[in-house]
Amino acid sequence: MRKNVIFIFAASLLTVFLLIFILSDTPLKTLYYFFIGPFRNLYSFGNMLNSAVPLIFGALGIIIAMKAGNLNLGGEGQVYLGAFITTAVALSLTRFGVTGAVIAVMAGVLSSASLSAFSGICKAKWKTPEIITTFLLSCAVIPIVNYFVTGPFLDPETSLISTKKIAENMRLPLILRPSSLSAGIFIALIFVIIVYFFLYKTKRGYEFRIAGKNEMFARYGGINTRLNTIIAMAMSGALYGFAGSVAVIGTHYSVIKEFSAGLGWSGLTVALIASFSPIAVIPCALFLAWTETGARIAMQNTGITYEISYIIQAVIFFLSTSVVVKNIFERKRKG
Questions:
Q1: Phi, psi of 79 (to 5 degrees)
Q2: Which of 120, 127, 159, 209 is least surrounded by Cβ atoms within 10 Å, i.e. has the fewest?
Q3: Is residue 54 reached through a cis peptide bond, with omega within 30 degrees of 0 on the bond before it?
Q4: What is the pLDDT of residues 157-184, one digit of tens each?
Q5: Are 33 and 15 in contact (CB under 8 A)?
Q6: Per mean pLDDT, which range of 170-184, 232-246, 315-329 is the poorest?
């Protein structure tokens, strides 16, 4: 796994060099801002770390589902729904302060977990492919949330298309001013440990991993794979819900229209680079956040466009997917 990660990182960085030298009129300047820019000051560095938080949650959501033999492609909608429910509940519980914030987060997480669990139920009961149902439900939820964000919950006092901001006493503390990095990064790191412990130190986690490798063998071994499918999908959605909730109480303090666009695929990319290892998610999320932040800073200071980050992500996605497919075929050959 370690060799695969190093190979993907190296190939991605080589792609950056080639693209910048081909597309930029000032390649050396662009390289400086791309690679060094995120570390120039506390503002850029903190924002880079903060952008890794939803990637960590998203990757963990993918890993939980994949270890049990499922794939959750509805991350974008689940993040968006979790963020909106958190905001709506928080706005109605302002007077309760921290207690209200906790209730709001749990409501957001449960809503996302329920959305994903429904796909798990469909797969367990009717063998409906969860890849299709999660994606379609996500596509259906996004315009519904958009209606509320741009309609009943729209804040007319801001230039952004967003809801009203939650109260200050419901927000996570900032830890690296003047950046937007909040205590949400510690919550993300705690969940990395929780997911690792669950998968490798508990009976249910062991059942997930057995079913993920061979569902038929797991059934003959007495494992209730249908129940585990529902639980795994619910947990996956819950982690995406946490990504949305933490984004609200830690970064945006409101729901900005379609702020979660691309988060589902980015989480999948991080999980693929990490070879579905919870601990490896941390460096892989930081790497992807670094490339995105570097591309943004390079765009602001040179003539290169931000789309270079999408090309890099596409290369990473292609390479990591190829490695995963290769490993699957190797396991089948050995079996």
A1: -65, -45
A2: 159
A3: no
A4: 888 899 999 999 999 999 988 999 999 9
A5: no
A6: 315-329
All domains in the chain, ordered by first residue: 2-334 (1.10.3470)
pLDDT tens profile 26-84: 888 988 998 999 999 999 999 999 999 999 999 999 999 999 999 999 999 999 999 99
Q: What is the mean pLDDT of residues 237-244?
A: 97
CA distances 19 to 14, 30, 154, 294, 334, Å, are 9, 11, 40, 14, 39
Instruction: Give the other-Cβ count within 10 Å of 42's Cβ.
Output: 13
68 Cβ contact partners less than 8 Å away, ≥ 6 residues apart:
208, 209, 211, 212, 228, 229, 231, 232
Locate 234 and state its tokens.
């619910």
Distance, in Å, from the CA atom of 78 to the CA atom of 61, rounded to the nearest integer, reads 11
Residue 200 structure tokens: 């490798």
Q: What's at 254, amino acid-wise?
A: S
